[in-house]
Amino acid sequence: MYGYLIKLWRHPLSIVLFWLVLAAAVSPMIWQLNINTRYDAYFAPDDLRYELSRELTDTFNRPDTLWLIIRGQQGWQWQHQQSQLELINDTLTANSEVLSIGGYTELVHGSGHSEALLSYKAHPRESLVISNDARTVLLELEFEQSALSPELFGQLIEQLQWQLTELVDGQQLELFFYGPLALNWQYAEVFSSDLAWFMPSLMLLTAILLGWYVRSWPWLLGIGSSALLSLWLTLGIAGWLALPLTAISGVIPVILVVLSLASGIHLFTGWRRLSNLGLDCIEARRRSIEEHLPPLFWGALTTCCGFLLLTFSPSPPIKAFGILVAFAVAINLLLHLTWLMVIVGLGRSKGHSRDNNPKGARRLECSSRLAIKALRRPLPGLSLALLACVFGGVGVTQLVFKDDPLGYFPADNPLHQGAEVTANTFYAANYQTFLYTNPNGALDSEAVRFVNRFSRFLKQQPEVVRVDTLIDWFRAAGLGRSALEQVFKSTPPSELGLGREVTDDLQRQLVQVYLRPTDTASMLALEQRINSWLAQQQYPGELSPALGPQSLYAHLSEDNAINMLLSFLVALVMLSLLLYWLRGSIRLALLGLMANLLPLIWVFGYWGMTGGGLSLGSTMVIGMILGIIVDDTLHLLLRLDAKAAHHPFILRRQLIRITPAISLTSLVLVAGFMLGMLSDFGPILELSLLSALIIGSAWFFDLLVLPSLWRHCFPKQNAP
Asked: What sections of the protein cross the membrane (predicted)?
């Protein structure tokens, strides 16, 4: 393979033209990127719960809406401010993108012939749209589909905010937004905000790292341009394959660039060491590739496999995440073997081969001295690792599925504030919906008795604050079942304002359950209790599983965690087999297994002990991180010579050659992932924090523990 690369380097112009033509060819595809910031973009279209949720939306006329919450000052009473409400209503309806206004406005103006059913009792939905103190009302806004694109909808909300703020100026009214469309709005805002932060921060980080350490213009140009080319080509593939990009995809450029920098720095470190020994630029380049190609190749292969494990996730954006990063890693290896080497070949004079940054090299040699000290005195490092294993093992047992899609945003975020007001005022921020189907109709006596029993059971659960069923309308109307049957014969339920509770043929009805603010673990526990209770009941018809955004996210989080954990275990086994095949040693295979498993146990143990849980962001780390941390392990296990295991002087020399690049690449990866902590989006923040901690822990193991354990893999009697 080295000979083929050398022949290829003899045609630098062809290599440059190939990559430039390829970059130009994919450029039009970048404008076709499938950016989807809808909250339901994370669910697979063929998921049963998602299909039922969309069917429920269409059947019961429950489209995604924007909830506008208006809160008045102390003593404000909306019943006495009908003119103000009419003015707000007129302002909203004047906007051509607004299709309808529901909520409190619908209750005030009536819906169809619902007043025929509600002659003397309160409207069943009243407490959902006006607070007990009558200070706060909730309006539901439905929009034209053409206005729901991320760019247009953000502008539309800003326009409505400005108009309403001008309208209520001096009235001491507060405006809040919530609901499915508000979630879409904030996902789009987070995506654009993260890119605005990440790209300049990433460029600054790249400039600092390369300028501080590399200081060779061919290598600076080659490594930097390779990272940009791999990012550009990856975006082109994303557009060509129409892979879905969501809010969590905003961190992909960070991962691509830092992985590219880490790979390039390995090659540069080897080139500089060889050039300082007197080799010219071309020979040092060739020898660096020859020395680093096996670990780079197998590291890239394992990294690709690690990220491809994300395709086992049930969420399409997470699958796309894994495919794109795996593609970028493969492209990046090809770029470093061709494009980077051609750019480096421009510096043919010896002036480019001298070490013009001795201070940077000496700083990194500190890691070599640290590794040598740990080799001489392994007990402190091994004791610390053992202690971390004990605490990590305890913490891992405390991990639970803990996710909250409403908690992805900071306290000053408009969606978070809207969710808080909604939960405290209307109890509608968290809810589940059950679809009950009975061929005999919703007014069948057995169906009515079952719904009554089900409602009473639900109200006994500590997470439940309210249950709405069709029976509430029976009571509000003051009519018996027979009388209500006669009413429905003359007037369909949809015309009576009951289209959101029951279908016109009366065969399907909804049971709406409102919950206290809760996380994934509590919601899944509630569903288990409900399922256990239902298994003991005899009832006609069918009852769907719990539906609604929170339930969908809860099950997505659980399924994703299980799939990521299983795929991670499969990857560990594959890695062990790979190491055994490469080095022919079961001990080395087990050592590689430890080096990549223990850092995860340490960090996730800490995460569990500090109250963290398995969420959408943290479980992605389980699936992808192995492909990143295995790279440094392979550099050690494949480049350390077994003959040096019991020759301290030779082993120290080899560590001096290997550990500086490992330390620098770990630093680059940690710094790159720390950029993700600039995000306001919870999954990205968790993914970045946990990844940085695991990479740092893996560096500790590789530097201070692995060499000592590696020596014991080779018996002394067999030493030359």
From this structure: 12-31, 195-214, 219-241, 247-268, 295-314, 320-346, 379-401, 561-581, 588-608, 614-638, 658-678, 684-706
pTM for the model stands at 0.87
User: Could you tell me which residues come within 8 angstroms of residue 514 by beta carbon, excluding any fewer than 6 positions away?
Assistant: 427, 428, 430, 431, 464, 465, 466, 467, 468
- Given a cut of 50, whether residue 720 has pLDDT beyond it is no
What string of DSSP letters covers 48-94?
HHHHHHHHHHHHTT----EEEEEEPPTT--GGG-HHHHHHHHHHHHT
75 backbone φψ class: left, alpha, beta (φ>0; ψ -120 to 50): left
211 token code pair? 């300028």
**pLDDT class of 1 with cuts at 50, 70, 90:** low
Q: Where are the alpha helices (DSSP H) in 120-216?
A: 126-129, 150-167, 180-213
Helix (H, G, I), strand (E, B) or coil at 103: strand
The pLDDT, as a whole number, for residue 433 is 92
With beta carbons less than 8 A apart as the criterion, state whether 393 and 471 touch: no
Locate 710 and state its tokens. 């590696």
Return d(Cα 465, Cα 485) in angstroms, integer. Answer: 30
Residue with tokens 């020759």: 647
Rounded (to 5) percent helix, strand, coil in the chain: 70, 10, 25
Q: How far apart are CA 548 and CA 111, in angstroms?
A: 24
- Using one digit for the tens of pLDDT, what is the confidence trace for 111-161? 544 555 555 456 777 888 888 888 888 999 999 888 888 878 888 888 888
Do residues 345 and 289 touch, judged by C-beta distance below 8 A? no
**Using one digit for the tens of pLDDT, what is the confidence trace for 518-564?**
778 888 889 999 999 999 988 888 999 999 888 888 888 888 888 88
Tell me the average pLDDT of the chain. 84
- Positions of E strands within 274-402: none
